[in-house]
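Weekly puzzle thread! Below is a chain. First person to post its structure in token form gets bragging rights.
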Amino acid sequence: MSTQPTRELETFPNPAPERDYTIRIEIPEFTCLCPKTGQPDFAQMLLEYVPEQRCLELKSLKLYIWSFRDEGHFHEAVTNRILGDFVAASTPRFMRLTARFNVRGGTYPTVVVEHRASGWVPAPPVHLP
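Winning reply:
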């Protein structure tokens, strides 16, 4: 069992590739460093995606997120980088990463980034009474 951070993301076969369904993963303990001050930045992240052929494996995702802990990153850059790495590993139909950073300088920055596979169109929403 690994106890070290890593940038290696593992995947597994989608058990239902014939259907669109959403996977939501809450990541409440993201940490990196402010590139200006070196002080820690904390964020709660929400990953939402519609898999194609591969799903992200949760333990490797946890170790991947941990790998940013001692690195300096601007919020916008790190959120886009993480989404890019997740997309590269799993090639989903759709993926959204929302990063809600804790207060810094009196502000609460939130960064939302998305990916849509070429040609993928979501089903229309169903509104129930």
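Puzzle host: Confirmed. Bonus trivia for everyone else. The radius of gyration is 16 Å.
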